[in-house]
Design a protein that fits this description.
alpha/beta, Rossmann fold, 9-stranded mixed sheet, 6 helices
């Protein structure tokens, strides 16, 4: 595997992935588990955030302690990526939120952009692109391209389930981007470009649509 790929190995994360794969998991629980997984993964994904030491008044004495100084931007790929935003903002309530809207052409499986709105004053900070499933990798690679075109450089990608084809696609276009997945599979995609052992259409299951 690439050095730019982190696969989480934790029993709690594995348990929650199983809940997402289960067809009997309802919309409310599915949405909650997606958010919880994003928060759990966020601790590791932002391990390298820049900090500085400041002095604060503790109850018994003044102490020097660290605070995060780096700007953080979370960019969900619409619409399924929205389900991961709340979990990350639990960790970083001051994070900026951008949005990228892409849809996949059902015949070519190539991504088509219909919306892109990013903060204009956070290019020097970290950006984490979120999308629950990394299947063909086309949408993720395109989203990262759009972000780079707007001046961002320190970009990461977080997905709940990723497959070899998707990871390889992202790294073929963006070898500098670190990919974080809660579960990694080498299973093949079906004819529509879905990971057959994943959780179906994440957007439909998060928002209760078909």
């Amino acid at each position: 595997m690439s050095k730019k790929l982190t696969v989480f190995d934790h029993p709690l994360i594995a348990h929650k992935i199983t809940l997402l794969r289960d067809v009997t998991t309802g919309t409310k629980e599915f949405r909650e588990v997606v958010s919880e997984l994003a928060m759990l993964m966020g601790y590791e994904a932002f391990r390298d955030l820049a900090t500085e030491e400041i002095e604060v008044q503790a109850p018994l004495a003044k102490v020097k302690s660290k605070v995060v100084t780096e700007k953080i931007t979370i960019v969900p790929i619409l619409r399924a990526g929205l389900g991961m935003v709340d979990g990350l903002t639990q960790l970083f309530p001051k994070a900026r939120i951008g949005h990228i809207g892409l849809y996949r052409d059902e015949e070519t499986l190539e991504p088509v952009e219909y919306y892109c709105k990013l903060p204009t004053d956070a290019q020097d900070g970290q950006v984490i692109v979120v999308d629950p499933a990394l299947a063909t990798g086309g949408s993720a690679a395109a989203a990262i391209t759009f972000i780079k075109q707007r001046g961002y450089k320190n970009i990461k990608l977080m997905s709940l389930i990723g497959c070899k084809q998707g990871v390889d696609k992202v790294h073929s276009v963006h070898p500098d981007v670190h990919v974080y997945v809660a579960h990694y599979t080498t299973d093949p995609l079906n004819e529509k470009g879905y990971i057959v052992t994943a959780f179906g259409d994440a957007g439909d299951r998060i928002f209760g649509t078909k």
